[in-house]
Amino acid sequence: MPKEFKAEQVINGTWGEAWLDGEYLAQATALKAEVTLKKTAIAMVQRLQEGQKMTGLELKGEIKLHKINSTIMKKMSERFKRGKMMTCTIVSNVEDPDTLGAERIALYNCLFDKLILADWETGKMGEESYSFTFEDWELLQTI
Q1: Which partner from 50, 53, 58, 89 sits 20 to 30 angstroms from 37, CA to CA?
Q2: What is the pLDDT of residues 110-130, one digit of tens each?
Q3: CATH number for the domain including 45?
Q4: To which H or E segment does residue 73 belong?
């Protein structure tokens, strides 16, 4: 790890992009995906403090969009009414031209937590925010 870096090397989220099942989401404004460890406390002899053992992973994310159309709502609504889950692949890419490269990640078997049918307010620009879980990920390109 370098001791120093140049300020212009910090990635600017303005250069972020997202795809949903291969369809470019020009209306995306934010994307976050996290892997959180599930741990179990392990008691040990001759120690007052417990150790920790990883026992699983929790994979969660959130995508925010400008509300410009009903694409996601239609996809989810059609499947949900037939009793089917809507799983999808989300790809994130951040490629700021002033940085050391691009970071591209695929999230597999994403499942949205809710279907938003209506959400608007006078004087406020339309926005959609969908939380989701996913089953796997792949680092397609790293810096």
Answers
A1: 89
A2: 999 999 999 989 999 999 999
A3: 2.30.110.40
A4: helix 71-81
